[in-house]
Design the sequence.
């Protein structure tokens, strides 16, 4: 999802930031995966079930990026029905070799 007018308005707002107040990632363009909430763009988790889902908040990582001056320019869509779980993730150390 990319809204060119919205991105340009964000970039113009960043341009108004005085040089001495700019953050480390000032103006760096970043696209986020479609499984990460952005309050100003739909987050659909790669599934038509969530088409048009508009989060009311930014995910923590997006908030941190914005606070550091990054320009969130779009949402990168992935495969359908992206699976995620709030339980403990599997890591190579937690898998058993057969």
Sequence:
């Amino acid at each position: 999802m990319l809204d060119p007018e919205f991105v340009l308005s964000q970039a113009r707002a960043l341009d108004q930031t005085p040089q001495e107040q700019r953050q480390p990632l000032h103006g760096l363009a970043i696209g986020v995966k479609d499984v990460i909430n952005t309050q100003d763009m739909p987050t659909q988790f790669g599934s038509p079930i969530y088409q048009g889902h508009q989060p009311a908040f930014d995910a923590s990582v997006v908030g941190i990026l914005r606070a550091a001056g990054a320009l969130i320019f779009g949402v990168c869509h992935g495969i359908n029905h992206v699976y995620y779980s709030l339980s403990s993730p599997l890591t190579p150390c937690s898998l058993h070799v057969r």
In short: The longest strand covers residues 71-76.
